[in-house]
Amino acid sequence: MPDQAAAQPANRFERRRARTRHALIAAAQGILAEQGTSEASIQQIAERADVGFGSFYNHFQTKAELFEAAVVDALEEYGKLIDSITGDLDDPAEVFAVSVRLTFRLADTHPELTRVLRYGGLPYIHADFGLGPRALRDIERGNASGRFQVDSPLVALSAVGGSLLGLLQLKSSATSEQSGPGADEEMAELVLRMLGLPPEEAHEVARRPLPIATT
């Protein structure tokens, strides 16, 4: 489940616990972003979070549990970001195009979040939180509206999710030609064609002006 620290704690003690949990998750995300692994010791994590060693076990039983929470939190953060930007769009195809293009640009705008998603995003494509349910929702809306021609939304979700994570990997190691102007539009066009849009429509939708973020 997504991290529950986002809920408003009822009293000072709960607020302090929420801050500690958030600090531990942020420390784990920083380690994932910098090292690409979860090999840091609990002592190193606690020092980075600026909390006592014993505080770790008030929130997590193991390191694996903490690093899972770090990835889940990053996925949910990114999902909410995409929702905030695409919320006013009516065309499911455009929603997908914007999502793909923003994902390709994520390495520039949110580099730490990008590295966390690259490290741990793949196992969560079909989770009931984060990016998976949002992408599945948009695929089903596209099917219902006739914009997409997808026999199995879940199979399409696997293909799209893997493609988006692959984009992050490509962007992280791309040459100037691969990551230059228009690369995000080309990627969006390919995904739209995969979902059943005719080539001409996919080309046009993928090159519409990006909406402005509301958060």
UniProtKB/TrEMBL annotation:
<dbReference type="InterPro" id="IPR001647">
    <property type="entry name" value="HTH_TetR"/>
</dbReference>
<keyword id="KW-0805">Transcription regulation</keyword>
<dbReference type="InterPro" id="IPR009057">
    <property type="entry name" value="Homeodomain-like_sf"/>
</dbReference>
<keyword id="KW-0238">DNA-binding</keyword>
<feature type="DNA-binding region" description="H-T-H motif">
    <location>
        <begin position="41"/>
        <end position="60"/>
    </location>
</feature>
<dbReference type="Pfam" id="PF21306">
    <property type="entry name" value="TetR_C_40"/>
</dbReference>
<keyword id="KW-0804">Transcription</keyword>
<protein>
    <submittedName>
        <fullName>Helix-turn-helix domain containing protein</fullName>
    </submittedName>
</protein>
<dbReference type="InterPro" id="IPR050109">
    <property type="entry name" value="HTH-type_TetR-like_transc_reg"/>
</dbReference>
<feature type="domain" description="HTH tetR-type">
    <location>
        <begin position="18"/>
        <end position="78"/>
    </location>
</feature>
<dbReference type="InterPro" id="IPR049513">
    <property type="entry name" value="TetR_C_40"/>
</dbReference>
<dbReference type="Pfam" id="PF00440">
    <property type="entry name" value="TetR_N"/>
</dbReference>
